[in-house]
Amino acid sequence: MFMDLPLDALRTYRPPLPEPPGFDAFWRRTIAEARDHPLDADFTEYDAGLALLDTYDVTFSGFGGHRVRGWLLAPKGAPGAVESLPCVVQYLGYGGGRALPYDWLLWPAAGYVTFVMDTRGQSGIGRPGDTPDPVGAAGPAVPGMVTKGILDPDDYYYRRLYTDAVRAVEAARTHPAVDPDRIVVAGHSQGGVLAMVAAALAPGIAGALIDMPFLTDIRRAIEITDAEPYAELARYCAGQRRHVQQVLRTLDHFDGLNFAVRATVPALFSTALRDPITPTSTGFAAHQHYAGDKELLVWQFNGHEGGGPHQQVEHIRFLRQLFG
C-alpha cells in the first residue's frame, strides 16, 4: 500500500516553487494567442429527455481556435425566465471525456448551471469524449497524453488543455442562464489542476473546488509513485536519459504549484492519505501555496476516490456559503 509523509509532516510541507524564468510571460502569450481566435461559443438545444433541465450541446474555440465540445445543463427555464444563476465549470479526470448529460445532474439539481468541458484527445469506456486534439506530437512519446510534445513547453499537450480550460470559463459566461460574476471552477485529479489553472488565469472567477490535483509538485510525484499517469513520465525519462532535465524544465511551466500561488479566489481543497495516483504530499503542497482563502478536507482512509459523495456534500456546502 502506498504511504506518503506522516500527517504531521504533511501539514507543514511547503516545497519551493518550481517556477521557470518567464513563466508569466509564457502564459500571457499563450492566452493572448488563443484570444486572437473568435470564441464563437455555440449552445445547441439537446433533447436528453430531462424534463426539469434545459440541456445544450456546446462548442467553443479553445487553443489554436480548435473547436472544443461540452455540455451545459441549467434548471428548466433559467435563461430569461428567472435571474441568471451561478455556474460550475466542470473539468474532467485523466482518460475520460464529457460522456452524456446524465453524468452531470448534481449541480443543476442543486439549483446551479453546470458547464462541462470535454477534454481534447481523451476518451474512456465510462466517459467517452468527443473532442479531437488536432496537433500532432512534436517528438516521440510513450502511450498516453502526459509526454506528448514534452521537450518544448510550446508544443506540450497541457499547454493546449490548460488554455481550453480558461476559454471554457469565457464560453460559459456568454450563456444567458449564467451569472458571469458567479462562476466556480471544479475538478478532480486532472480536473483539479485545470480548476487551479483557471482560478489563476481566468479573471473574475468566484471560487474553486480542487480535489486531488494532478500535475502538482510534479518533480516529487514522479520520484515517489509508480502509479499511472505519473508513471508515463518515469517511463519516458527511463528511455530518454539525455533529455531528463529538458523534460523537467518543460513540466515546470505546467506545475500546479505555480498556478496555486497566483490564484486568490476562495477555494475548497481535498486530498486523501492513501492516494498513490496524486500523492498526498502534492495536494498538501498545493494547498500550502494557494494564495486565496482556502480550506482543506483530508480523507484519512481513502485513495484517489477521495471523499466521493461525501465530498459532494462539502461542495454544496461551500457553494451555499459562497453565494448565500
TrEMBL record:
Keywords: Hydrolase. This is Cephalosporin-C deacetylase. GO terms for biological process: polysaccharide metabolic process. It comes from Streptomyces zagrosensis. The active site is at S189, D275, H304. It holds the Pfam family AXE1. Its EC number is 3.1.1.41. InterPro entries: AB_hydrolase_fold, AXE1_dom, CE7. It comes from the Bacteria. One of its GO terms (molecular function) is cephalosporin-C deacetylase activity. Substrate binds at Y94. Residues 2-321 form the Acetyl xylan esterase domain. It is an enzyme of class 3 (hydrolase).
